[in-house]
Model the fold of this input.
Amino acid sequence: MRLIDRIIQNERTELLNTTRATSAVVLSSRIRLARNLADSVFPARANKSQRCAIVAKCGTAIESLKGIKNPVLLAIDELNDRDRQVLRERHLISKELCEEPEGAAVVMDQRQGCSVMINEEDHLRIQFLKSGFNLKALWKKVDAFDSQLEQSLNFAFSPEYGYLTACPTNLGTGLRASVMMHLPGLVLSGHMERVVRAVNHLGITVRGLFGEGSEASGHVFQISNQQTLGESEATIIERLAQVLKTVIDQEINARFCQLEQKSIQILDQIGRSYGLLQNAYHISSDEAMNRLSFLRLAVDFNMLPDKCRVLIDRLFIACQPAHIQAAAAAQLDADMRDCKRAEIIREELKQLPKLDMNFTAN
Amino acid sequence: MRLIDRIIQNERTELLNTTRATSAVVLSSRIRLARNLADSVFPARANKSQRCAIVAKCGTAIESLKGIKNPVLLAIDELNDRDRQVLRERHLISKELCEEPEGAAVVMDQRQGCSVMINEEDHLRIQFLKSGFNLKALWKKVDAFDSQLEQSLNFAFSPEYGYLTACPTNLGTGLRASVMMHLPGLVLSGHMERVVRAVNHLGITVRGLFGEGSEASGHVFQISNQQTLGESEATIIERLAQVLKTVIDQEINARFCQLEQKSIQILDQIGRSYGLLQNAYHISSDEAMNRLSFLRLAVDFNMLPDKCRVLIDRLFIACQPAHIQAAAAAQLDADMRDCKRAEIIREELKQLPKLDMNFTAN
Done:
C-alpha cells in the first residue's frame, strides 16, 4: 500500500475523528507561520535543484524534531490529482502548493494535526490545526515547534520588520490564525454581510470553506487575521479571539431569534435535511453541505444527542469530492460521485436517533 | 353538529377509506349520467322558484330510491366556501354546481360513492364512484339507479338523439366514464404527451386531478370518454376500458424502463419523498402530491407493503386545501395550511415501515 493511501485511509485524525468536545459554532482552529531560509531565494524564484535542496534541508530538520510524531514527507509531484485534493480537503496543503509541484513537499504527523508545506509561497508554512475553538493552545504548540526548528534552520529575519516573507502581507510575525465557523444563524437572518463588514474594519478576513475565493457552502466560514506586522503573536491571537467571541455570541443570538421568529421554517429545514440525508440516493457536495449544516444545527438545538456533532463534522470533510473518490477507490464522474456520496451519508447516518422535537434549546 | 360536518368528518367513505384491493395505476373510477326533466327549462334558463321546484321534485324522487343508502340532500347555498371545497376535493360536486348556488343541491349516500347534483348544467348529474378500476361494476349500479329514477321522473328523451342535455356534447347517452390514473412512469419518461395525443384520436380526453383546466399534480390524470352520441353505453365503456388497459400497460412498461435506465434517479426521488414527507414541517399541496406520488410508486415497486397504498390514496385527498382547513377546524392562511398539512402527513406516516431497497419489482 502506498504511503499516501495509508494517510488517506487513516481516519483517526484531528479533524476526521476527534474525541474532544466540539463547539456549537467553531468547527476547527488553525495557526500557520510563514518562514523562509535566510540563505536561499524565495520558492517562486528558485530553480528546480534549488527547490529540491530546500526540501531536503527543511525535511531533514523537521523530521528530527520532537514536536512532530511519526512525521511523513510527501513530495507533491509524486501525488496524483486525487491525492492532492484529499490533502486539500483536509486543509493539510494549499492549492498554491500544487501549482508548482516539482520541488514542493509537505511533512505531516500521524494525526494530521500538524503539517509543514515546503516551497509554497514561502519556504515553510508551518501549520497546526485542532478541532474546536483552541487558538491559545495551538499557539503554544506552533511557537514551541517554530523555536525548535529555528535551532537547526537559519530563518530570514530583520530586527526591524521581523520574519521576511515572499509576500509583504505576511511580513513580521508570518502568522495567520484562522477559525472555521458554522454560522447558519447569521446567514439565515441575513446578518452575515453586516458581520463581515464589521470584522473587516478590525483587520479580520472572512472566506469560504476552502479559503480565498471559495464558497461558504454549509454555512461554514474561515475567519482569520489579516495583519501580521506591528503586533506580537500573542496580541494578534488575543484580538482575533476577542472578535470571534463576539461573532459566536451574535451567531447564537441569531439562531435563537430565528428559532423564535421563524421556528416553522427552521424546523422544516432541519426535518427535511434529516429525512433527505438518510434517504437520498444522489446528492451533490453542495446540497450535502447545506443539509449537514441544518443537521449540525439540530444538535445545537438539542434535537439530536451531542455525540452526533463529531459525526457531522467528519462528514463535512468526508463528503468532499476527492474523499468520495478515495472511498470508492475508483475514478468516478460527477454523477457517480453524487451516488457514492449519498451512499456514504446514508450509511454513516444509519444509527441516527429520531429528532427530538420536544427539545429545550439552550 | 351540522349535517355537512358529519359528512366531512366521515372518513369511512368510498375514496377516503377503501378496504378494497387498490390498483397500481388506477386510483378510482367514476361514471356520471346527465339527465333533464322533460317539462322544465334547463337550469341556466330557470328562475329561482323554478330551480327550487326542480330540487324539491328530484330530491324527493332520489331519496325514495332503494339504490341509495341513507341519502342526504345538501342545498349548496347553505354551505360555506370551505364545505363546498371539501365536497369538490372528494369529487362529489363540481365547480359549476357552486357557480349558481341558489336552487342548486346535491344528494349523496352515506359512503359518498353516489352523488346526484341537481341543477348543475343539467337538471341531474348522477354519479357513482369507486376506488380502483371498476367501470363495468359501476355501470351496472348507475344503470339500475337511472332506470329506477326514470319510473318517477319524466326525462327529456328523443327517440332519434337519446337523452337531451343542456350542452350538445352530452347528448345521447349523457354518459361520461372517467378514471383517475397515476401515471408517474409516462410523465418521467416524457411519453405522456404522446399518450395524450394518441388517446385524443380515439375520442378520449385527459385532464388534471380536478377536471378541465386543472394541473396534473402528483402525476394523477383524469381520463374520460368525449363522445356520448351514436354508441350504446356498454360500447362507450368497453372502448374506454380497452384504451385504459393499453395506457396501464404502457405506464407499467414505462415505470420499469425508468427503473432500469434511471434507477438511481428513481430511487433518489423515492428516498427523498419518503424522508421529506415524514419530516417536513411546512409543505404545499403541490409538493405533497408530487412526493406522495413517489411514495405510491414505492408501493408499486414493493419497497413498501401493499396496505400503504390505501393510506397514500387517502392522503392524496386529505392533503387538499379545504380538507386541511376542515381538519384544523379553523380558518388558516396558506402558510398555516402548509404547516397543518405537514403535521397531518407526519402523523399519518408515523408507522411507515423502512423502505425495502432489496425489492423485487413485479
